[in-house]
Amino acid sequence: MTDIIIIGGGPAGVSAALYTARAGLATKIIYKDSGALFTAEQVDNFYGNAGITGQALVTYGLAQAEAVGAEIISGEVVKIEQVYDGIGHFLVETVDSGFTSRALVLATGASRSVPKIPGILEYEGKGVSHCAVCDAFFYRGKDVAVLGHGEYALSEVKTLTPLVRSVTVLTNGREPEADFPSDVAVRKEVVKEVLGDTRLTGVTLELTDASHILHEVAATPSSDNAEATALQISGLFIAIGTAGATALARKIGALTDSNVVITDENMRTNIPGLWAAGDCTAGMKQITKAVYDGAKAGTDIVKFLRES
Q: Containing H/E element for 31?
């Protein structure tokens, strides 16, 4: 078990790592990509670095964290759990590995936006969910779908499969990037609309042909017409791209508000041992604020673990 795992390799995560690693705590940074900053052509509003590219700033930051002892791991986090075995700790699962830590920081940046599909916002909490671990129980014995095409979607499928009657993966026009089980229907049509009355009842997909169906499973209810396919489902689980901070936070009961994780002044969440920092929290979406959040979290973690 390591002392601290930080999910995210941007300014907030690296800033936290600089404080924890320099304090002698075993620190791992796990990140899949470097977020929006990596694509910035030029950064002019960060102290002492006028004109630097976002890519250079991210690269220098990770190298700096590694130089003071942090371990840098490239991987996509698909699941986190809080485990109690005498002492509380966290289990972090990536596509390929699993890690445990005494403390955890979510620093994955701002959550990805919900796709602009008519009806999807209207039925949030009424059939549309962002967390299979949280809500799978309520759909036991029912037909559901997962909206996504990668490893995050696969993780949600695995959570749902033991409880529900059927799972259909909706890639929304994207090619699948994960090896979905053969007993799970995978539909590649674009999702046109989310349907329902008081609750979600289904989705409509663009007109299909055989090339749009990767897996066809007889248990998946649908009906065709000349323009679209109506897929009847009771639940739709959003799992687009990689799991953002709010999605991961919800999985272990951390409080969120819209697209941010709720923290106190020290970046602590309501879950003991769990911090969040940077764009996934409330306030300015700026590098300077992310660095400050990471510093606050890092110094507070040092104090927390030394007193534990």
A: strand 27-31
Which residues, in sequence order, are CB contacts of 135 under 8 Å at separation 6+? 129, 235, 237
137 lies in the same domain as 95: no
Residue scoring higher pLDDT (207 or 9): 9
Core vs surface per residue 290-303: b (16+ CB within 10 A) or e: bbbbbbbbbbbbbe
Residues 40, 59: contact at Cβ < 8 Å? no
Cβ neighbors of 7 (< 8 A, separation 6 or more) are 13, 30, 31, 77, 80, 92, 104, 105, 106, 107, 108, 245, 248
Residues 135 and 231 in one domain: yes
Q: What is the pLDDT of residue 86?
A: 60
Considering the domain architecture, whether residues 158 and 199 belong to the same structural domain is answered as yes
Could you tell me the CATH number of the domain that includes residue 52?
A: 3.50.50.60
Average pLDDT of the chain?
Answer: 89
Range of the domain at 232: 128-238
Asked if residue 122 belongs to a domain, the reply is: no
Q: Provide the 10 A C-beta neighbour count for residue 221.
A: 14
**DSSP per position, 122-154:** TTBTTTEES-HHHHGGGGTTSEEEEE--SHHHH
CA-based nearest residue to 268, from 104, 111, 102, 134: 104
The total number of residues written for the chain in this structure: 308
**Longest Cα separation, the chain:** 66
pLDDT tens digits for 23-76?
999 999 999 876 678 867 788 888 888 889 988 999 999 999 999 999 999 999
Instruction: Please indicate, yes or no, whether residues 178 and 234 belong to a single structural domain of this protein.
Output: yes
State the pLDDT confidence band at 224, using cuts at 50, 70 and 90.
very low
Last residue of a domain, one of 238, 266, 284: 238
Q: How many domains does the chain have?
A: 2
